[in-house]
Amino acid sequence: MQGVVSPRGLPTVLLHDGGISLPATVDTGFKGDLELPLVLRDQVPGRWIGRIRSRLADGRVIEEDNFGLELTFDGEAVRAQATFAPVKHALIGTRLLRRHRLEIEFRSGSVLLQKSALLLG
């Protein structure tokens, strides 16, 4: 997967799944799989898993509904967990990236996510 560094300095890729194309920020401080915009809640089929507590970067602790879903990520069907929030862009967390290598080149503005050769085979 290729992406760009946004004008605000955020590594961003496009998620494509089921007719939905959504900009997503790669957030290395987020330990989960996905946070998706609340407006997509009825469009993304998922099963409710339960409530989770999350600590935000500013130290606040929030409770959110957590959903299990299947999506296509980097050309592969994967199972993931997602929360929904009143945001415009999705967040991709480190748990979803566990089989990938992330390369961010801030000078050129390029982002590359690729399956790690160490984990293939």
Explain what the structure shows.
This protein is mostly beta strands and 121 residues long. The chain has a single domain, classed as Cathepsin D, subunit A, domain 1 (Beta Barrel), CATH 2.40.70.10. The chain contains no helices and ten strands. The protein has strands at residues 2-5, 11-17, 20-26, 34-37, 47-55, 61-73, 76-85, 90-92, 100-105, 110-115. The protein has a ten-stranded mixed beta sheet, with no helix packed on it. A hairpin with a 2-residue loop joins strand 6 and strand 7 (76-85). It is globular. The relative contact order is 0.28. The mean pLDDT is 90.
Could you name the key traits of this structure?
single chain, 121 residues, Cathepsin D, subunit A, domain 1, 10 strands, 57% strand
Topology overview:
Blueprint: E1 2-5, E2 11-17, E3 20-26, E4 34-37, E5 47-55, E6 61-73, E7 76-85, E8 90-92, E9 100-105, E10 110-115
Short structural description:
The protein is an all-beta fold and 121 residues long.
Distance between the termini: 20 Å
According to DSSP, the number of beta strands is 10
What is the averaged pLDDT score? Answer: 90
Shape field: globular
Question: Helix fraction?
Answer: under 10%
What would you call the structural class? Answer: mainly beta
